[in-house]
Amino acid sequence: MPVSDKRVQIPKSAVEDVIKGLRVELDRRTKEKGAGAFLSTHEVLGVVSEEFHELEHAVRSNRLKDVHNELVDIAVACIFGVACIQEERMDW
């Protein structure tokens, strides 16, 4: 039996709700900070790394709401980074 069969299954609708929420958060952040592209892959790495370190701290502190918020921050940074690459807006 695969490991996934032993876990509680998350309904597709729950994942779709999260994706909708990420769209809303991405829109909010681009309104707040602008839609200026990351300048480089190093900048993307820096942003994602900073958020990852904040996630580690939230996990170690056992604060589920903070873990959630940091995961959202990472997802938004990753989505924006992928968009910058797809639009060929990074120099390197």
SSE layout:
Elements: H1 12-33, H2 41-60, H3 64-86
Fold and architecture overview:
- The protein has a domain at 37-92.
- The chain has helices at 12-33, 41-60, 64-86.
- The model has no long low-confidence stretch (mean pLDDT 92).
- Helix 2 (41-60) runs antiparallel to helix 3 (64-86).
- 71% of the residues lie in helices and 0% in strands.
- The protein is built from three helices and no strands.
- The longest helix is centred in the C-terminal third of the chain and has 23 residues, at 64-86.
- By secondary structure, it is mainly α.
- It is globular and about 45 Å long.
Give the low-pLDDT segments.
none
Q: Could you state the oligomeric state of the chains shown?
A: single chain
Strand fraction: under 5%
The CA-CA distance between the termini, in Å, is 44 Å
**Helix run count:** 3
Round the mean pLDDT to the nearest integer and report it.
92
* Cα-based radius of gyration, to the nearest Å: 16 Å
Helical residues, percent: over 70%
Strand segment tally: 0
Instruction: State the secondary-structure class.
Output: mainly alpha
What summary fits the major beta sheet?
Answer: none
Listing every helix as H and every strand as E from the N terminus to the C terminus, the arrangement reads HHH
* Envelope shape: globular
